[in-house]
Specification:
Elements: E1 2-12, E2 17-28, H1 34-39, E3 46-49, E4 54-57, E5 62-65, E6 68-73, E7 82-85, E8 90-93, E9 95-102, E10 105-108, E11 113-117, E12 123-130, E13 133-135, E14 140-144, E15 151-159, E16 162-166, E17 174-175, E18 180-196, E19 200-221, E20 228-240, E21 243-247, E22 255-258, E23 262-271, E24 282-288, E25 342-343, E26 354-361, E27 365-373, E28 378-387, E29 390-397, E30 404-412, E31 415-423
Parallel strand pairs: 2-3, 3-6, 4-7, 5-8, 6-9, 7-10, 8-11, 9-12, 10-13, 11-14, 12-15, 13-16, 14-17, 15-18, 16-18, 17-19, 18-19, 19-20, 19-21, 20-22, 20-23, 21-23, 23-24
Antiparallel strand pairs: 1-2, 25-26, 26-29, 27-28, 27-30, 30-31
Length: 425
């Protein structure tokens, strides 16, 4: 294990704010105990896994005890590291914990979950999963641990990831039971296949915002209670540019949404799912269509070269997870190579609740795009990976943030630039 202490110093030129933060960057070899390291973590610790290496969680859990941590692949890795979980899970203890999981595969080999919560657990700040593949968990991806769990997760964000084969003991992909819930859930550019009963299930009316964008969702067995079984107390749900297919049918609608004041679905397709009845606040271009994927049995959801879905999305791009477009490399890359690095002004600006940040890379570079508030506190890391040359666009969603001034910073190789944006409410 190699531990590096460093100090991050950020100068935000608009307002001359200086922010310093200590963090540990901890490089783990496959011989190190991930469970022990996470159990002893301090807030801000970043656990870096070797590309292509296999790590194991056997009987011991990786317990997150009220701290905010990151588990990610090393920079420049050409193959994702993998965590094999036979009996251990990633488990939250206490209050105020948070997890960012980036560029890592997780595989289940036993009666276990990917992420779960201690029965006495009460609150987590966020769970963020980026650029990862999670597969072969017999029970669920994210769920409570026992019927007496009482918990609240403020934010769940899943982007550019794949989840396969959660299809054994009758549990859901994301399962928040009768006394557990979340404020904000967003899943974008993600594929989910072979899950049981529901994509999301929660009985508590705590849910405020659910966003599903550009996702491919296939193969739900035993639809009880429904594909989306979510209770809210005046929140909003939005589904766009998403494909849903091959759900085991019953007489009920696949949309078991209750208590939402705003519900929208647009530019989405369904096939072989049963009833899609629901009284949406707004519905546009929600149609039945067989996508004719290459090989769903082996989790290949590549669209045909001539598929009309390739240009039917809201922005003229694909419907479904855009990484399944033929020849796709990156969802927002353009073919032309810019002459220089650049960070552009976000649009729209001011914005409410989301905006697009565009930047160009002259050559392949380790790239980070981060958002800070006016105190210099890191709000969200939007990009943290090696990226190819080209023009890239990333959407930033401020639904859970207060109105005010924010700054976004791009670092790519030796290039660095900061710009200002305004969130209105």
């Amino acid at each position: 294990m190699l531990k590096i202490r460093y100090v991050v110093v950020l100068f935000l030129v608009l307002g001359m704010i200086v922010s310093t933060a200590n963090a540990d960057e901890i490089r783990l070899s496959p011989d190190d105990s991930l469970a022990v390291e996470v159990a002893n973590a301090e807030s801000g610790d970043i656990f870096i896994l070797e590309g292509g290496a296999t790590y194991t969680l056997a009987a011991d859990n990786a317990n997150i005890d009220g701290v905010e941590i990151t588990i990610r692949a090393e920079e420049g890795a050409t193959e994702r590291p993998e965590i094999v979980m036979s009996e251990g899970h990633i488990r939250f203890h206490g209050s105020g914990g948070a997890l960012t999981f980036s560029g890592v595969n997780a595989r289940g080999e036993g009666q276990n979950y990917f992420i779960t919560f201690d029965p006495a657990f009460s609150q987590a700040n966020y769970i963020k999963i980026y650029d990862s593949k999670v597969m072969d968990f017999p029970r669920a991806s994210i769920r409570e641990d026992g019927p007496e769990s009482g918990a609240m997760v403020d934010t769940v964000i899943i982007e550019n990831s794949e989840f396969y084969n959660f299809d054994d003991d009758g549990y859901r992909f994301v399962h928040f039971g009768s006394i557990i819930g979340f404020d904000y859930f967003k899943m974008t550019n993600t594929t989910v296949s072979d899950f049981t009963e529901s994509l999301i299930w929660t009985e508590t009316p705590m849910t405020k915002t659910v966003i599903i964008e550009n996702c491919t969702i296939e193969g739900m067995d035993v639809p009880k209670p429904s594909f989306l079984a979510i209770t809210s107390a005046g929140g909003s749900v939005s589904i766009s540019n998403t494909i849903m297919l091959n759900f085991e049918k019953n007489d009920a609608s696949i949309f078991g949404l209750e208590g939402f004041s705003t519900s929208t679905i647009e530019n989405s397709r369904y096939y072989n799912v049963g009833s899609v009845d629901y009284d949406w606040t707004a519905m546009n271009s929600f149609e039945e269509y067989e996508p004719d994927f290459a090989d769903t049995v082996n989790y290949d959801f590549t669209l045909p070269d001539d598929s009309p879905l390739l240009s039917a999305g809201t922005d003229g791009g694909p419907i479904g997870d855009p990484r399944w477009a033929p020849g796709a490399v990156d969802v927002e890359d353009e073919a032309t190579v810019p002459e220089d690095f650049a960070l552009h002004q976000n649009y729209p600006n001011p914005f409410n609740p989301s905006t697009t940040i565009e930047f160009t890379l002259q050559k392949t570079a380790d790239t980070q795009l981060k958002v800070y508030d006016v105190t210099g506190r890191l709000v969200e890391t939007l990009v943290n990976t090696s990226m190819d040359p080209g023009t890239h666009r990333v959407r930033f969603d401020g639904s859970t943030l207060p109105a005010g001034i924010y700054f976004y910073q791009l670092e790519a190789g030796e290039f660095s630039s900061v710009k200002r944006m305004v969130l209105l409410k």
